[in-house]
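JOB MANIFEST
job_type = single_chain_structure
chain_count = 1
residues = 103
[input]
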Amino acid sequence: MAALSGLIGENLGVERVQMRFSAEGGSHVLTVGNQGLLAIRDLVPTGVENGPPARLTGEFHPVTAAGFSDGTLSKAETGSDLEAFGMHWHPTAGLWAHFSLAG
């Protein structure tokens, strides 16, 4: 997680909320309390509609350096919207990967 520390400029606070994550059929949804949800769908290369999703492999990225496996490139789903601590996220793209916080 130390690799991600350079991405944090200001601590806006901490809040305890229920989070739910689901992954099914190339769609991944993270619901964060009543603040909203972030939903992405695996990005499949143009012309290969039923092929494997595009992957980020063998490249440095703070996410993969923090213990995540190679990432799958994704596109944000309609309705993906999250607001917390006075900030608003309405993403257009995403990256997801399996991870473990175990040392």
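[summary]
The longest strand covers residues 36-42.
The mean pLDDT is 80.
exit_status = 0
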